[in-house]
């Protein structure tokens, strides 16, 4: 979701799909044994893009997971606090998915738009310095 190698997949999803739901399961007892993984539930649909519903570390109980599932599939996000929120503009080309908060996403997207990519500057600077060594 954030690594550079995922850029082409994020690009394809941004252009042709809708990142509909994301449930961060990190540090939840999602498995019966300890695992080295970053578990998440990610729902990607072939439909018009819209807001992404996001939840973080839900309690692993029948009641909590039932409320979570209902909130994720409801036509309109329930007004009661279910731990699910909607964020618009989650996918933007190959850019990393900032799944923490709408504020973090807004700052990240503004910085990406306002400033050149540092990797590109490094390549240009490195090439100029090496070519001047003769």
Textual characterization of the structure:
This protein is of the alpha+beta class. It has 4 helices and 4 strands, in the order H-E-E-E-H-E-H-H. The chain has helices spanning 7-16, 62-73, 102-114, 118-131; strands at 18-24, 40-45, 52-56, 84-87. A 4-stranded mixed β-sheet has the order 2-1-3-4, sandwiched between helices. The model is unreliable at 122-133 (pLDDT under 50).
Rg, Cα atoms, Å: 19 Å
Please give the share of residues in helix: 25-40%
Shape category: globular
Largest sheet: 4 strands, mixed
User: What is the rounded distance between the termini?
Assistant: 42 Å
Order of helices and strands: HEEEHEHH
- How many strands appear in the DSSP assignment? 4
Beta-strand proportion: 15-25%
Secondary structure topology:
Elements: H1 7-16, E1 18-24, E2 40-45, E3 52-56, H2 62-73, E4 84-87, H3 102-114, H4 118-131
Parallel strand pairs: 1-3
Antiparallel strand pairs: 1-2, 3-4
Keywords:
globular; disordered C terminus; 134 residues; four-stranded mixed beta sheet; 37% helix; alpha+beta
Provide a brief overview of the structure.
The protein is α+β, with helices and mostly antiparallel strands. The protein contains four helices and four strands; from the N terminus they run H-E-E-E-H-E-H-H. The chain has helices at 7-16, 62-73, 102-114, 118-131; strands spanning 18-24, 40-45, 52-56, 84-87.
């Amino acid at each position: 979701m954030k690594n550079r190698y995922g850029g082409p997949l994020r690009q394809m999803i941004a252009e042709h799909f809708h990142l509909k739901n994301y449930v961060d399961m990190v540090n939840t007892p999602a498995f019966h044994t300890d695992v080295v993984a970053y578990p998440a539930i990610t729902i990607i649909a072939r439909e018009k893009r819209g807001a992404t519903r996001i939840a973080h570390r839900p309690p692993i109980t029948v009641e909590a997971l039932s409320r979570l599932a209902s909130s994720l599939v409801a036509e309109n996000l329930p007004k009661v606090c279910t731990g699910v929120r909607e964020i618009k503009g989650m996918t933007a080309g190959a850019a990393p998915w900032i799944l923490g908060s709408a504020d973090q996403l807004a700052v990240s997207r503004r910085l990406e738009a306002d400033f050149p990519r540092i990797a590109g500057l490094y390549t240009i600077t490195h090439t100029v310095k090496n070519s001047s060594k003769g």
